[in-house]
Amino acid sequence: MREFMTGNHAVAHAVKLCRTPLIAAYPITPQTPIYEKLSEWESSGLLQGIMMRTESEHSAMASCIAASLTGVRTFTATSSQGLALMHEMLHFAAGCRAPIVMANVNRLLAAPWGFWADQLDSLSQRDTGWIQFYCENGQEALDSVIQAYKIAEQVFLPVMICLEAFFVSHFMEPVEIPAQEEVDRFLPPLNLPHRFDIEKPGFLVPVVSSDLYRKYRQMMQRAMDSVKTVAAQVDDEFKTTFGRSYGIIEPILVEDAEVLLVTAGSMTSTARMAIQTLREKGYPVGLLKIRLFRPFPVEALQQTITGKKKIVVIDRNCSIGSGGIFCQELRAALIHSPDPPFVYNYLAGIGGTDVTPDTIGKIALDAIRRVDPADESIWWVDV
Amino acid sequence: MIEIKFKGRGGQGVVVASELLGRAFFIEGKFPQCFSLFGSERRGAPVIGFLRVDEKPILLKCQIYQPDQLILFDLSLVEEKEVIEELKPGGTLLINTDQGIEAFKNWRQFKIGLIDGRPIARGAGVEGALNTTLLGAYAALTHEVRKETLIEVVRRMIPIKTESNIKALQTAYDRVRIYESLS
Amino acid sequence: MKVYPESCELLIPISYGSTEIIETGKWGFQKPEMVLGAAPCEESCPAGNPIAKFIHFVGEAKYDLALETILKENPFPGVCGRVCFHPCERDCNRNQYDEAVSINALERYVFDVTMNQKPLLRPMLNNHPVRIAIVGAGPAGLSCAYFLAMLGHRATIFEARNEPGGVLRWGIPEYRLPKTVLKREIRRILELGIELKTGVTVGKGLSMEALSRYEAIFLSPGASQSLTLGIEGENLTQVWRGTDFLNRINAQERIRPGKEVIVIGGGNTAMDVARSARRLGSAVTVAYRRTKKEMPAISEEIEETEQEGVHFEFLVQPVEIRSLPNGRIRVKFQQMRLKKGSQGKRPHPIPIKGSFLNMETDRLIIAAGEGVDLSWVPTDLIEKGFIKETFSGGKFFSGGDAVNQHRSVVTAISSGKRAAISIDLFLRGIDPEEVLSKIGIGSKGALSMEAYMRGLERGIWEGPKSIVGFDKINTLFFKPSERIKLKKIPSDQALKGFSEVRRGLSSGEAKESASRCFSCGTCNECYNCYYFCPEGIVSLDEMNHTRKVDLDHCKGCGICSKACPRHVIEMRLIS
Questions:
Q1: Do chain A and C touch: 3 or more Cβ pairs under 8 angstroms?
Q2: pTM for the full predicted model
Q3: Which residue among A61, A222, B74, C439 is buried most deeply as judged by most CB within 10 Å?
Q4: Looking at chain A, which residue has its C-alpha nearest residue B51?
Q5: Which fold does the domain A2-242 belong to in CATH?
Q6: How far is A103 from chain B (nearest CA, A)?
Q7: Does residue B29 belong to the interface with chain A, where contact is any CB pair within 8 Å?
Q8: What separation in angstroms does the CA of A123 have from each of A109, A160, A263, B65, C385?
Q9: Maximum CA pair distance of chain A?
Q10: Which residue of A has its CA nearest to C9?
C-alpha cells in the first residue's frame, strides 16, 4: 500500500512491521516523530511491542542491549547529541554481539547548536562495531530497517540506519508500505539464543585476558567482513519479496563514465538529476552511491572504480583535520588499484546547507577542469 | 513537474496547507513531495512551505528556488522585486489580500488570483488558519487539483471544525478573483 | 558462509564460570571482625542486664527470648521493672541524642507479657554437689541461690520470716510491687531445686556452729531495723518505726496511723511510709533535714509522693517529742542549713542556732534509715555495724543490705550473683579476683553470668567487653523520637487503695520504645553490613542470628564497619 508520509514515519512503519517487542528511546529533534508515532501506536494498541521511555540515550541503548540478550528484537532511534551520549553503550552493544537496530537521523553536532542535516554524528561512530547504512529517502529507510534485522540477526552485530535530518526525515513523499504477511515471511519470528538464563547464570562482559580480547575482536571483524556478502544476499531476497533493491553500493551510468561522482544519503537522489543534465551537455559523468559504510565495501568499490580517471567524492560531513570521511575511506580503498585515479573531495551540504542539482553540476565541472590531483578537501560554496 | 511555494507566518496554517495539497495530489495519483523550511517554530515567525508534484517520483532533495506557483498568506513578508525575481516567468500567484488587482500592477506578467481569506474563514467559523480557504481559491485558480479531492483530504486530515473548513474552502473556491497574465 | 562460531558463549563475552577462584581477600590489609561490645546502660546496671539484646527481642515480639535473655543475668525482671532506680536510663547513649530509652518499662513489659509462661532455663550439670547455706531469702539471698542453681549447685535458704522475699515482701508496698509479681518470680527461682526453710533464725533455730558446717555460707540477712533518732520522746506510743509500719501493712494488718502523720526521712522507705499513710487516710508531712535535691529516694517516687498530696518540710531535724494531753504529740524541729560538701559529697546539714519549728501531730513515723541485726553474727564477721563485704579465703560470703553498700534491690541482686560466682570459684579452688575482673561489664562492678559460664565451658575467661560510647554510634541511621510517657492511675483513685500506680506499656508502646534502642555494641540484625558491602560477601545466617563475611573475598574496605550503626564491626589490621 502506498502512502504519503515523512521519512521518520516510514521508519516507524518498518519497526511496527518487524513486530519489534522492545523499543527503548529518548526523544530528540529531528528523530522525535519516530518516537511519537511509535508511542501513539503503542497507546492505541497498534504496536505489538512496548515503548520503554528511558531517561537518556545512554540508558536507551543499555536497555536495548539487555533486552536483546534475552533473545528479542529491539529498536531505538536517536540523532546527533543523543547518539554521542550513547557512544559508550554502542561499543557494548557490538561487543556483546547484540543484533539491535537503530535509526539515526543525521543531524549536525554541537557546537554551535543546530538541527540541520550533517552526517558527522553517525560517522563519528564508525569504529564502534556497528553496521551502517545511509539512505536517500523514506522508502529506502523503511526497507533498510527491515533488511537490517535480517542482517543483524545473521551476523550478530547491531545495525544503524542513517537518514538525514529534514531532507529525508521530514520530506513527505509517497512510500510503499509492505504488507504485514510479506514482512512476516521475510522476517520470521526471532529465535535468538537466550543469553540470560536463570537456570544457567552467567556474567556478561567479564574481564578477559589480552589473548581472549583479541580473539573476540577478531571474531567481530570476521563477522563484520561477512556483512558485505550477507547484506547483498538479504537485498536480493528483499527484491524477490518486495520488488525493490538497493545494493550495498549502487553504480549509475558508470560504465562509460570518465568522471565518477560519489555520494551517500539524500544527496545521491539530487545527483541522479544532476548527472542527467551533465550527460545531456556531453560530459562523461557517472554516479556511485555508497549505501553500506560499515563494513566499507572495499572490493565492490574497487571493481566499480577500476579504470576511472577522476573520482569526485561529495561529503556532507567533515572530520576536522582530515576532511570528508567517505573520501578518506574511499582513498584508502583504492590505494592498491593498478592505475589509481585522482580522488577529489568536495565538502558540500555541511550543516544542512542546500545541495541542488546545479551545485552538483558545478562541482563536477570544477573537477573536470582540474589537471592536478588535490589532497585537501575543497569547501564548496555556490556562487 | 510543478513547484509550489507557500509563504506566511506561523499559525496561519502554511505547513498544513502544503501537506493538504500534497495529499490531494497524492490521492489523484501524482507523486508529490512536500516539506517546509523551519526556522524557529513559533507563532508569527515567517514560515515557508514547499510542494513539488510530478507524474513520476521526484528525486530532488533540495529547496525550491524558482517556483511555478507562489501562494502568499501574508503580503507583509514579501517585497515586490523579490516576487518578480523568484517566480518563474509565466508562473501563477495566489494572494491573500483585501486589495483589488490595481495594487498588483507590477506583477501582471503572472497569472494572479486574489482572495480576501480572513473574512471568508471567519464567516465559515474558522479562526486563525487560512489554509483551507486558500486551497479552495488555489483549486479554482489553477485547476491542478479537483475541489472534491481537497474536500476529501480536509475530511480525512482535519478532525476539528471539519465542516467549517470545507465551507471556507468552498466559499473561497467560488469567490477567488482570477486575472490572467498580461504578457 | 560461517560467520559465528560454534557456540554463543564464544560469540559474546559471557562467563558462566565464577570469579570466586580469585581470592581478592588477599589484597586487603585489614579485615572486619564482629566485636560485640557492651552498652553504657549495661555497664551501669549492677545486675548486668543484657539490655540491648532483650530490647532487640522485644522489638521482634519474641518476648520469651527477651525473658530468657534477662533471666541469664537477673532473676527479678518483674520486680526490677517496677522498683529499680534504673541507673541504666541515666547512662543510656540515647540521652545524648534525644531522650533515654524506656529500659525499665520495657523490662517490666517483658515480665508482664510472659507472666503465664514458663521460661526455659538451662542450669549447668554438676556431678559433685555440695551443701551451701544462705541466710535470708531477700533479693540477695534468692539471687545467690538462683545463680548457684544455674551453676549446678544446690543451696538451702534459711529465712527467719514465714515467707520469702525480704524487703520485697515486707518492705515495698503493694502499690509499687504487687505481691502476685513477687510470688511469680520467687516461685520461678525456687523451682530450680532450691530448699527454703522459713521461720528459722540463726542463733535460735539454727546454731552458728551448725551453719558453719556447710561447705559455703552466704549471709544476706538484710537491714530491717529502723534506726533510732536518739532523742527524747522517741519511745512514745505515738511514735512508730517505718519498717514496722510497712511490715504490718504488708502482713495485711488493718491499721490507722491517725489523722495527721509526720514521716522523718528522705529515702525510699520514707516515701513508702508517707504514701502508705496517705492510703490509710492520713494527712502526711515528710520532714527531711536536707533539701529535695539531696533526697536519696528515686526521683519518680518523690514526684509521685508529691502528686499524692504529701507535704514536705525541708531542712528540719527532730530534736524532741512531747506527748500532749489530747493524745497528740508535739515535735520540735531544729532548723538546718546546708554546708557545701567536700570532694563531691552531698551537702552537710548544720543546725541554725536558736531556730526551731514546732509541729503537732497524731503520729510520727521514723524512716531515717535501717540497721542490721548483728546479734547472731560472730564478731570477726562484723565491721562498723555491717557484715563484712569480703572475707579472704574463708567459706563465708555476704551481700545485700547487711553489708556496707548502696541499698537497692538491684545491688542486692548483684551481690547475690557475685557471691554465687565467688562460691563456685571457691569450691573449684580458683582465685575469684582474677576471674571476676575478666567477667565484668565495663568498670562499674557489674558481672556477666553468661561470660562466667562461657569461660567455664571454654576453660578460659576472655577479657571484658569494651563499652560502646555515644561517639561510636552512627546516628545517621536514627531519627529523633520522643520517649513514651508512662501512664499512671490518677492520684485520687490511687489513694483509695493499694493498687499498682504505674501502668505498663501497651504492646504498641513497647514496640515503639524498643525501636528507639541504638543496640549499642549488639548486633540486632539490621542488615546494614549486608546491604552496604560492595562485594556482596556478607551472608546472613538468620537461623543462628549471625553475619558471616567471606574473608577470602573481602578486600577490607571497611564500609561494613562504617555502616554499622551500633559499632559491632571493627576493622583489624592483618598482622
A1: yes
A2: 0.65
A3: A61
A4: A172
A5: Rossmann fold (3.40.50)
A6: 20
A7: no
A8: 11, 11, 14, 30, 102
A9: 70
A10: A195
